[in-house]
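Q: Given only this backbone (480 positions), what sequence would you predict?
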């Protein structure tokens, strides 16, 4: 396998990374990461206090140069979860910025402060493609988070497949404000540009003004999550400068959750640009993507990327052959983008696979051209009502198409007659005059089908969401 970062083997004065007050060229990044690699080489895994800063980027690149697995830590992780991650991964040290305030749970670990101005030797990358590069912890539906072992092979394969699908080159300047403890922000958003030899500008924290400034100042690509694009869509009507900045970008990409059709339409109408959606997860990195330049495809995440095999499987294990846009099955994938297993969890690793196919737990349909349309998670979003298998995602999109709905989530709950009834959790646009349950049920029945209408509507002030903007459906209870 070629080096993950060819641009670091012959570093130049081209800009590599800008985050807040810090800007590093490829030469400066190579020297700072090389100095860190020399300090930690030969150790076990190292934890990274993953703040949205240049220090985090240098810490991860330094670990990759040293051949030491990096364990990104969410600075907002609670005490119990942090203790589990440390006990499970047993890091030799924690890499931080100079001013970072660490929780008591990290007091027992040696602390290594990342020096952006350090000058170390040029370090040759490890040659073993299967060696673990990152251990990223992901929460399942039950039990503590599992450590996902991501190899250098998986990272390179996924980033190169995206480069092919998106024509991503060294001339691109990526703008984003994603957290750096997840795959989306760290692997795609930091390692992706560095692998291409391009530039990444991290905003530190998301703001409409920051996006407009950086895209208007030479940015060519924007990565975001639906919450960010929703805020951009809201601001477009009053901000012609923002519309021009978005229109000038070569590529707008949304991920981590489905982007509502209404936001797709508002952004396209104001900018002429189509937001591209892609689909991946921690264990698989990226699986599919809409291809830029084609007709708008809101609601789909595109066909599989190069090298990725994808199939839909029925509950009885039979493989679905239908590409009818209606028949629902679980997504299973295989390819060089897959993880190597869960750390210390051979049982969970074995259970996650059907032969060499990874069971994603996501449910979807496939269109006639092979494009995938996700309808939710099997555990929380596949609703069996009146003999039908219904995906929550399409009902949520239909609800969001109603003028009186600001946010919407759909779940199922037991029903003695239907098996499960469809429940809509709605944040109204106007708290004083929310849409009625009957009005919303009729709206969904007209757009989709009568059996997909919500039987119960519950009003909320806001939907519970995680750091990446995903709705926490487990937090939605009968009591609201």
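A: Predicted residues:
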């Amino acid at each position: 396998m070629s080096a993950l970062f060819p641009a670091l083997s012959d570093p130049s004065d081209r800009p590599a990374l800008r985050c807040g007050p810090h800007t590093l060229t490829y030469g400066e990044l190579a020297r700072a990461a090389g100095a860190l690699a020399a300090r930690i080489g030969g150790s076990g895994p190292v934890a990274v206090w993953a703040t949205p800063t240049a220090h985090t980027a240098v810490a991860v690149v330094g670990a990759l140069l040293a051949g030491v697995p990096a364990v990104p830590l969410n600075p907002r992780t609670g005490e119990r979860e942090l203790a589990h991650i440390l006990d499970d991964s047993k890091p030799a040290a924690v890499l931080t910025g100079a001013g970072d305030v660490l929780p008591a749970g990290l007091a027992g670990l040696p602390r290594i402060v990342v020096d952006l101005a350090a000058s170390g030797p040029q370090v040759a990358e490890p040659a073993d493609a299967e060696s673990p590069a990152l251990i990223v912890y992901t929460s399942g539906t039950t039990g503590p988070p599992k450590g996902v072992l991501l190899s250098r092979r998986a990272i390179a394969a996924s980033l190169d497949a995206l480069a092919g699908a998106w024509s991503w080159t060294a001339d691109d300047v990526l703008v984003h404000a994603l957290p750096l403890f997840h795959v989306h922000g760290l692997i795609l958003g930091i390692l992706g540009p560095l692998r291409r030899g391009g530039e990444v500008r991290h905003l530190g924290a998301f703001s409409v003004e920051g996006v407009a400034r950086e895209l208007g100042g030479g940015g060519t690509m924007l990565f975001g999550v639906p919450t960010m694009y929703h805020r951009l869509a809201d601001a477009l009507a009053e901000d012609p400068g923002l519309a021009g900045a978005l229109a000038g970008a070569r590529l707008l990409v949304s991920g981590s959750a489905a982007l509502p059709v209404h936001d797709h339409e508002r952004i396209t109408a104001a900018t002429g640009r189509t937001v591209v959606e892609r689909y991946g997860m921690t264990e698989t990195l990226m699986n599919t993507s809409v291809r830029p330049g084609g007709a708008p495809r809101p609601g789909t995440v595109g066909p599989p990327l190069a090298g990725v095999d994808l199939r839909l499987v029925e509950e009885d294990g039979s493989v679905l052959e239908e590409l009818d846009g209606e028949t629902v099955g679980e997504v299973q994938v295989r390819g060089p983008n897959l993880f190597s297993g869960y750390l210390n969890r051979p049982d969970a690793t074995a259970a996650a696979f059907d032969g060499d196919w990874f069971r994603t737990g996501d449910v979807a349909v496939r269109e006639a051209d092979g494009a995938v349309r996700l309808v939710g998670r099997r555990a929380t979003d596949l609703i069996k009502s009146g003999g039908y298998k219904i995906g929550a995602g399409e009902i949520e999109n239909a609800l969001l198409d109603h003028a009186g709905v600001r946010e919407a989530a759909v779940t199922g709950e037991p029903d003695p007659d239907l098996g499960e009834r469809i429940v809509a959790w709605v944040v109204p646009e106007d708290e004083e005059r929310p849409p009625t349950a009957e009005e919303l049920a009729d709206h969904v029945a007209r757009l989709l089908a009568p059996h997909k209408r919500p039987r119960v509507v519950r009003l909320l002030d806001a939907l519970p969401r995680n750091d990446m903007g995903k709705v926490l459906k487990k937090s939605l209870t009968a009591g609201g």
